[in-house]
Amino acid sequence: MRLKKASIALLAATALTLSACSSADEGDNGTTTDDGTTSTDGDTGDDSTPDLPGSDYNAVDPADLQDGGEFSLAISSYPEQWNARHVDGNTVDLKSTIYSYIAPVNWIFTENGEFDVNPNYVESYDMNVEGEGDYAMVLTLNLNPDAAWNDGTPITVADYEATWKACSLQVEGVACASSDGWTQIESIEQGADEFEVVVNYSTEYPDWSANMDSVGPAAGLSDADTFNEGWKDPIEANQYMAGPFIIANSNDAQGVLTLERNPDWWGSTAKLDTVTFSALSQEASAAAFANGEIDALDFIVDAASYETANGRPDAAIKMSTSVQWRHFTFNSRAGVLQDKLVRQGVQLGIDTADIAASDLAGLPSQHLDLNLGNHFFMPNQPGYQDNSVGYDPEAAMAKFEEAGYTMNEDSGFYEKDGEELAFSYLRIPGNAANENEGAMLVEQMADVGVKVTYTDVESADFFPHVIGGEYAVTSFAWNGTPYPMANVGQIYGAPFDAEGNLINSNFTGLEVPEVDALIPEIAAETDVEARQALTNEVDQIIWDEVMVLPLYYRANITAIPDNLANYGSVVFETLLAENIGYTN
């Protein structure tokens, strides 16, 4: 089957790096080795910015790996919601990491963003972009009849129909993370049999494959009570999974999840016996890798963790590009930040280049230019343009004065009606990037007459505060997918329903009619350049409204033992869980 080319870019069905739409996490000189894989040699010692590879790992034929072994990984926080389609389960830890071992993976992506089917779940597909009859597009999926949920129920058209209905606002009370792509579907019908899925689109939707990258079980998605509450216990939720591994044990108190080989898995037998996920802080994760307690340290983001991990005798450092980016999110409902002029002044008073340099100091990516001036496209990708407003302290203070504030020369802070111009920063003590960004925000805001204080929370409580709007400003990372122009509404669309319930991941709480008007246009536009222009129009509006301020994008730095194969740093490439293993 001909491979389809996905846009190489930033953001789509974001998972919160909460995992982001694609969790709170909270360069180098690339050389090619004899086996053709790319490895990093550390600091280049200059200010060059070589291109990072799209993938960097030890690629080994699974047949040549040892049979068995244990594999332990760290996650940032233990999930409380195990339904990754639920707004609270839309995290990198669950959706992008844990689910890759236990849930359907319909597409296998290559390093450059092309994909084909994963025959374990989908044997073939046909997308008729010309449409049929009243339908703008028609997708036909031919499912693998051997694929089944862990309760023994085959994966059929009924599951695709239930997934569509749950996330297209047809099931009242469902808290789906995003409806983007689902509302463009008119119907899902059975074809020749229950394993032929016919998806009829009412409008053209270029990013159709983003929605069809997986599927959920009808039994777990068909009603709001089950969708929202029926996945809270991972052991119980095991029935709703289907992958090479199954959940064997969950220790909520210790934050440890253990997987074992799925005895009913119909694909190639997994090379590993068990996979364990432990909720650990960044500092603890680095120490655990150095001590051999975990077997990979993903997305190293601070110098201390890098040095600790690199001290392990058998450590191999892998580095690729990524679709993860740090940012400040502004709560438009919080105190002085309700005033757009104040938000604009705050944005103008933030030196993102200085923050990036501080965050990246001591990392092998520190000499790379990782500046980010767009909320959707990554630099050097089609469609990217730098729409940022720049750093201008004088313009920042002018905004505050336009908003009616005057400088108190004694305190050094602006005031209005006897109240200081002040807000709080939601901080995670022990999270290096979040802590450092908060400290620099305090310093930079003081320079423009704004007082910033801290509100401290534990890592496990961070996203409940963010999702609940219990913060003013904070920072974390968004993690994207190969679809930069899909799911624009997930982070920037109207955030609440008529009853005031959060219906997406727009944690700013800001509804922008101009953005909402452009979202359906972007979703349906098939001319690539016109679609990019519309997306950049939205991007410029977001900069003006000050919803989210990009700080920089990250290199994906991963530490692994040198005998670990088929696991490492990738941006788009799919590394199937059943192929991960050890060479000796």
Tag the structure with descriptive keywords:
four-stranded mixed β-sheet; 16 helices; 584 residues; 28 strands; alpha+beta; globular; 23% strand
Round the mean pLDDT to the nearest integer and report it: 89
Helix/strand/pairing class, anyone?
A: alpha+beta
In total, the number of strands is 28
Low-confidence segments: 1-50
Largest sheet: 6 strands, mixed
**β-sheet strand percentage:** 15-25%
Structure characterization notes:
The chain is of the alpha+beta class. It contains 16 helices and 28 strands. Strands 2, 17, 21, 22, 23 and 24 form a 6-stranded mixed beta sheet that branches. A 4-stranded mixed beta sheet has the order 6-15-14-13, with helices on one face. The protein has a 4-stranded antiparallel beta sheet with strand order 9-10-12-11, covered by helices on one side. The radius of gyration is 23 Å and the shape is globular. The two termini are 35 Å apart.
